[in-house]
Design goal:
By secondary structure, this protein is an alpha/beta fold. Helix content is 39%, strand content 21%. It contains 17 helices and 23 strands. The protein has a 7-stranded mixed β-sheet with strand order 15-16-17-14-13-19-20, sandwiched between helices. The protein has a 6-stranded mixed β-sheet with strand order 10-9-8-11-12-22, sandwiched between helices. It has a 3-stranded mixed β-sheet with strand order 1-5-4, with no helix packed on it. α3 runs antiparallel to α5. The longest helix has 25 residues.
């Protein structure tokens, strides 16, 4: 695997079943965030390249066999993609650690297997999916067909690039649509391989296309305004989601957005801290805090505040920050210089807001080969004011804020006092309180005494500015299909 790590790769566009160069021969560099060494030259799609990809996807949808083949045959090819992913698990995990900066073992043990499971799950789900039948007094019979929509633009983020791409691609393909995928520009390495994986699995040419580039006046804008694109599934920042809605409005594109988050992790005085502390550490610092579901606002009942702070600080101090390829590393670097500068700026914001620094707040001491990496210690603040910027804005890094509260009602006011509503966590041994608080927190997913547990049949998405629509199970299938009613006269 040394070659995988050290090699400077050329990442081309994947259009109509083959890897091709940018029509303008325009490329950009991708760097290892742990060392700042160049790891790839990436071809940037021009407007003509995006047009070619979208038209290839349209031809594959209208004229190719994908839409009309049996569900069983289509899903068998998707399952073969999942098998190939698992066969290449170590390679994909090494590359994910390389360009995202996440610990290799997290990618290897969780994210790559989950990516394969995403594809396998939606293949199984589609095969088992039924339709409604409504008889009318023995005179007429109505039945429903769920047919593919057409060409889907799948735009995925840089924090979990491979896993989140398959989360969209699985239902897209299982329902018979074709796809044009745009990975985030800092992290294209693993997603680019989905082209050859799809081809090896027998997916027809043009069904899966991958184009790299940027957002405004680049690949993202060209895709979201293209007349051949019927629907857009996007995961990323709320501000980008707003721009995509504007881009797709003229052609009435269907959209599904999973956007920003600022989850409340509510710890009541009767919580089991032996469970709450290690899980809250994971919720705060997994992937260096670069997770939309991160429990970055930790609301702690004042009666246990000091105990929680001491134990949480001790657990954070034991996290090993270092080389993502080292299996003992718990936390790697932030993904890029631009993002690092944004996150570090919140250290000054926290100081100006009189937050109390409990732990971290600086670069860790690291070996020489990591000196240029974008590293930050796990950082903990206590902030009494829940309206402070560090309590309201999505930092998306290893910075968490502990906010004290006295009563359940106060905890609910703080939890709901944000523009976001993607998820929340509740820690309590009181069953009635667990239900009561879960019902009143305005967020799409509430985890009680756990975090990041996903049943792929369940709806996933956000309230307020955390998204539009839901994904998962039949919610994904509804987004990627058109429901057609057929009324048949029986006499």
């Amino acid at each position: 695997m040394a070659e995988v790590i050290s090699k400077i790769r050329e990442i081309k566009l994947f259009i109509d079943g083959e890897y091709v160069s940018s029509s303008a021969n325009k490329t950009f560099a991708v760097y290892n965030p742990a060392t700042q060494e160049e790891i790839a030259r990436v071809h940037e799609a021009t407007e003509a390249d995006v047009d070619r990809a979208c038209r290839a996807a349209r031809r594959a949808f209208e004229d190719g066999p994908w839409r009309t083949m049996t569900v069983k045959e289509r899903c068998a090819k998707i399952r073969r993609m999942a098998e190939i992913i698992l066969e290449r698990k170590e390679e994909l995990a090494r590359l994910e650690a390389l360009d995202v900066g996440k610990p290799f073992h997290v990618a290897y043990e969780f994210e790559i297997p989950r990516a394969a499971h995403n594809l396998r799950f939606f293949a199984d789900f589609m095969e088992q999916h039924g339709s409604e039948t409504y008889p009318m007094d023995e005179e007429f019979l109505n039945y429903t067909r769920y047919e593919p929509v057409g060409v889907a633009a799948l735009i995925t983020p840089w924090n979990l690039p491979f896993m989140l791409t398959t989360w969209k691609l699985g239902p897209c393909l299982a329902t018979g649509n074709t796809a044009v995928i745009k990975p985030a520009e800092p992290t294209p390495l693993t997603v680019s391989l989905l082209g050859e994986i799809a081809k090896a699995a027998g997916i027809p040419d043009g069904v899966v296309n991958i184009v790299q580039g940027f957002g405004p006046n680049s690949t993202g804008e060209y895709m979201t305004t293209h007349p051949e694109v019927d629907l857009i599934s996007f995961t990323g920042e709320t501000s980008t989601g707003k721009a995509i809605m504007k881009n797709g409005a003229n052609t009435l594109k269907r959209v599904s957005f999973e956007l920003g988050g600022k989850a409340a992790n509510i710890v009541f005085e009767d919580a089991n801290l032996d469970k709450a502390i290690p899980t809250s550490i994971r919720a705060a610092f997994l992937n260096s805090g670069q997770v939309c579901l991160a429990g970055s606002r930790i609301l702690v009942q004042r009666s246990i505040l000091q105990q929680f702070i001491e134990r949480f600080k001790d657990a954070a101090s034991k996290l090993k920050v270092g080389d993502p390829q080292d299996t003992s590393t718990n936390m790697g670097p932030l993904v890029s210089e631009q993002h690092y500068n944004k996150v570090v700026n919140y250290l000054q914001i926290a100081e100006s807001e009189n937050a109390t620094l409990v732990y971290g707040g600086k670069r860790p001491a690291l070996p020489e080969h990591l000196q240029n990496g974008f590293y930050l210690e796990p950082t903990i603040f206590v902030q009494e004011n829940p309206n402070a910027r560090i309590c309201q804005e999505e930092i998306f890094g290893p910075i968490v804020t502990i906010i004290p509260f006295d009563t359940e009602e106060e905890a609910l006011q703080i939890a709901n006092g944000t523009q976001y509503g993607l998820n929340a966590v509740v820690w309590t041994d009181n069953l009635q309180r667990a239900h009561r608080v879960s019902h009143r927190v305005r967020a799409g997913t509430i985890w009680v005494n756990c975090w990041f547990i996903r049943d792929l049949r369940a709806p996933f998405g956000g309230f307020k500015k955390s998204g539009i629509g839901r994904e998962g199970g039949h919610h994904s299938l509804e987004f990627f299909t058109e429901a057609k009613n057929i009324c048949l006269a029986l006499q």
